[in-house]
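Morning, I've got a small favour to ask if you have a moment. I owe you a coffee for this, so here goes:
>
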Amino acid sequence: MILRPLLPALAASLLLATPAQAGRRPAPGFDATLPTPPAMAPTEGAIFIAAAGYAPLVSGARAQRVGDVLTIILNENTSTAKTSTAKTQRTGSANITPPTLGPLSMTSTPLNASSSGSFNGQGNATQTNSFSGMISVTIAEVRPNGTALVRGEKRMLLAQGKEWIQFSGIVRLADVDAANQIQSGQVADARIEYAGNGTVAQSAREGWLSKFFSYISPF
């Protein structure tokens, strides 16, 4: 009977904890993009067939078409720090001497009153993140301004679970080097997800009962 009022909160907590307990899954939409089919049928007997693919004299075999593969060099380092300090102080005093004669006379002792207040608060926050590695992606869309939308993923099946890296963003084709590589810092609107599931990942998550008490705790 005591737990009956807590059932709605417990149900809400279980719903929030269900995805984490069930195990995360890679988000869809990061599959490799296939190259577009040739717009014209190849001409039989010709020496040069444009539809069969070729390496231009200037750009060589650099990735620049839909379906081409390029490598993203993941080198992300972020560091943030914030400090906040607040201090206030206020004092006041009053000295009143009542009259000693007449109908308003009360006492000959002066009345003294004083007040004071102070506040001192300080907060610090520091966060540092580092992520490095490599992932190969495919060009999903080539845009008229010389940029391209790239996306791809890497999945690894390990002994104690699965891990995956998903990447998407907009690259400038002129920044792709001769080895078809580009730094992740040169990718606009970059979205990187590194996650996994299994025994190791589950042991690092908070249990559903602990989440429930953290959810209803007023402190």
User: Anything to note?
Assistant: Confidence is low (pLDDT under 50) at residues 13-22. Strands lie at 69-96, 111-142, 147-158, 161-172, 181-183, 188-198. The CA atoms of residues 171 and 187 lie 5 Å apart.
